[in-house]
Amino acid sequence: MTLQTERLILRPWQNSDAEDLYLYANDERVGPIAGWPAHTSVEESAEIIRTVFNMPEVYAVEHRDNGRAIGCIGILIGKNSNFKLSEEEGEIAYWIGVPYWGQGLIPEAVREVMRHAFETLKLNALWCGYFANNTQSHRVQAKCGFRHHRTEENKYNPFLRDYRTEHISRITAQEWLALPKQQA
Fold first, then answer.
1. What is the pLDDT of residues 87-118, one digit of tens each?
2. How does residue 144 score in pLDDT terms, banded at 50, 70 and 90?
3. Cα–Cα distance measured from residue 100 to residue 78, given in angstroms and rounded to the nearest whole number
4. Residue 183 to residues 74, 139, 144, 145: CA-CA distances in angstroms?
5. Nearest to residue 128, comparing CAs of 111, 158, 120, 161?
6. What is the dihedral of CA 59, 89, 140, 4, to 10 degrees?
7. What is the three-class DSSP state of 169?
8. CA distances from 73 to 84, 93, 180 (A)
9. What does pTM read for this prediction?
10. How far is CA 12 from the centre of its chain?
11. What does the CA dihedral 119, 170, 30, 154 come to, rounded to 10 degrees?
């Protein structure tokens, strides 16, 4: 499945994306704030593509201007989520490389994934989480209509072996339908 927006193509990851993935995922400003360690080699990035990103509804965020994978977005449905969700709910997870921060690309991608989740996959609700120090992720969720649901303190993060405060937000299909067109 491929999804498209004005500036982006959301498509399955390919083995040939390993160098692009490493280029952005090795930056200490990207992974740790999202809860995972920075990549240390192209080989590690290739392994992540084969094992972690090789799932239904996980997409490379490709910029139309350069054809490169510049980030990742996915819908983790039901038991694949980091939260306890029913099979009619999904978690949206995302990140983008630092050179593309502040351009509105991830909100653009999230809106398209939300449309797909509610219209095509017929999910009842979508969830997102962000760690306490990740203000960029909080802004994305607010721009896309997600509302704060709860905060979990001292949540163990197995990827970085630390404890964090995570804010969890949600939007239902009905709430999404009621959003103004520019937000949905």
1. 999 999 999 999 999 999 999 999 999 999 99
2. very high
3. 30
4. 19, 13, 6, 7
5. 111
6. 40
7. strand
8. 19, 6, 23
9. 0.94
10. 14
11. -150
